[in-house]
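At this stage, I needed to go through a protein sequence along with its fold in token form, as given directly below:
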Amino acid sequence: MKATIKTVVASMIVVGSLLIAHLATAHHSTIGQIAEETTQISGTIKEFQFKNPHSWIQVNVTDDKGEVVEWSVEWGNPNNLIRQGYNPSTFKAGAQVTMQLRQHVSNAPLGEFMAARFADGTTVGNWVDK
């Protein structure tokens, strides 16, 4: 009987440890996935997904071949963005925008938001003139 109790307790410890490890890795880091240098894209806002755990800005960009490529730009969580004065209407569908971002190292049309400048000159984030 003692061996069975020990086996059950040991199994519970293993399962508990695996659950804790899973929770600890649930929120990912972009270290090693995002380039250090800033990339700039210009296009039309398709959609602003203002939701947890991260907001996403979808931007349609016309490439050198004349084809439209949809970029996915990751931004902060809505709670922090609201505290900084941003809201779901910050990026309206159809708006022309130039964005500065750190692109994914795979060179996919994916990156981390740094700043944006709209056609009227309004900026969002930490715009750096180049």
